[in-house]
Amino acid sequence: MCFVRLLAAPTESRIPSRQTPSRGCIVDAIHTEFSLIEWIRRQARGSTCVDTGIGDDAAVLRLPEGAQTLVTVDMLLEGTHFQMPPATGGEVGRKLLAVNLSDIAAMAGRPLAAFVSVGLPRDAHREFVEELHTGILELARRYDVALAGGDTNVWDGPLSVSLTLVGETTGRGAVTRNGAQVGDWVMVTGSFGGSLRGGHLAFEPRVAEAMALNEHFQLHSMIDVSDGLAADLHHVLDESRVGAVIRAENVPISEAAQQWVDERSALQHALGDGEDFELLFTLSPAEGARLLTAPPFTTPVARIGEIVAERTCLLRSVDGVLVALPRLGWEHGA
Hints:
Helices cover 29% and strands 25% of the residues. It has helices at 30-43, 89-106, 126-142, 199-202, 207-216, 229-240, 255-259, 266-272, 285-293; strands at 50-52, 60-61, 69-77, 109-121, 146-155, 160-169, 185-189, 219-224, 243-247, 279-283, 301-308, 313-316, 322-324.
């Protein structure tokens, strides 16, 4: 698996020295390509699920028997999902793996192996590439994820990074978006809003929480909140063909959202900012009450509403007034 491939002219084929400022000129000489592959290979941890990893044409994985395989991929684009500065290469690398870990968490799965693809600006430099991969690798070690391969290219555009993460199902199997049932409680982990104040680069994927929920409770549906609390709730309602009533006073609002002073309220930030990467899930009232009585982790959980038969999404204000809750949040392709 090739980690640097030439898109520049042959006369530009050198990665600049480590003393060059962090996004100085990078191009592709054969010896520098192999040295970068070797550097990444030395940093990456081994895994019992990876028989053959970095250095060959394809990875060979040995997946656990009895479990289903989960595969997710996310792409991050400079100028859309992060800005450099203020984001550093390490922070971008960390976020790249973290958003994929959050997708595996949404299915109550266990992450196993990652494959990263990087489209580098032509003025990026070797030190920046190492910083980017260090951000990935440090988080990978914490979640016992093997970096098993990838590809890196150089082009005339901004930084573009993509990661594919392979995982396995756990406990009762994958939890999907389409199982919400009438009468279910709508519950969430953590708090919401204000992610652009830095939270989108430093959030903690709820992998352990999701596996614990799946082990101890009968979940009917689950999703991670990336587009926005309201938008992702609508995704569950669409897939499950049901509706919901959300109680405004029960929505956990982050400190960052509460301190944000602009034309939107703290609740609006919580419902629509997105990139909170918390879990939103549904389960029966009995299971929900049991969870609130004896949660299996310290991360806060809250009941924010209930599933109803009518296919609408409503927000109930503190004084009991019902209003439509639109798909507040990120619109793909907008």
